[in-house]
Amino acid sequence: MAPKEDIKQVNAIAKEFNMTQPQREDFGFFLEQCKTEGYRGTKNERGDFTYQELRQMAKEYLGILEN
């Protein structure tokens, strides 16, 4: 069974940011926690995140500061 589209995007973001497997798993939990706390994405009614939202959240998760 192939991964769902949202999982594919999260995996692509993890690869882009060179996340380790444990970081990738924690990032997934981080995203779910954000949804639980009311921060939901704008991709669809389920609250999935767009690719750009995922990139921004990866930066937040990894503590990457932007200038």
Description:
The mean pLDDT is 91. The protein is an all-alpha fold. It contains three helices and no strands. α1 packs across α3. The chain has helices at residues 5-16, 21-36, 51-62. It is 60% helix and 0% strand.
Provide the structure class.
mainly alpha
How many strand segments?
0
Low-pLDDT stretches are none
* Spatial shape: globular
Largest sheet: none
Beta-strand residue percentage: under 5%
Please tell me the overall pLDDT. 91
Compile the SSE list and pairings:
Elements: H1 5-16, H2 21-36, H3 51-62
List keywords for this structure.
67 residues; mainly alpha; globular
Concise structural overview:
With 67 residues, the chain is an all-alpha fold. It is built from three helices and no strands. Helix content is 60%, strand content 0%.
